[in-house]
Each structure stands twice: as structure tokens, then as C-alpha cells.
Amino acid sequence: MQQDGVYNYVLMTVPALLHSADESWFEPLPMDEQSEDIIEDTWGDLNKKSLLK
Question: What superkingdom heads the lineage (predicted)?
């Protein structure tokens, strides 16, 4: 049970950390809008799955 809690905590905090990170931090890895949408969709799916548990 405790492991699930840690797993959900990581899923909830990592996207928030990435979202709040300074934009310049991503400069070495330029992405077009399509790539950003794919990443956002993936994180959204992961968050929905973790919330449904």
C-alpha cells in the first residue's frame, strides 16, 4: 500500500516540477508544438490513471 502512495506522489509532483521549471532549462532540447502536446497528453493520461486508483 505504501508503495502505491509513493508512486502516486511521484506522478503528481514530477509534472508539476517540470511545468514550473525555468524555460531556459529546456533549451538544449528544443521541441516543436506537436512534441509538447504528446508529452502533455502522456502526463495527463498518467495522472488520470493514478487518480483513478
Answer: Eukaryota
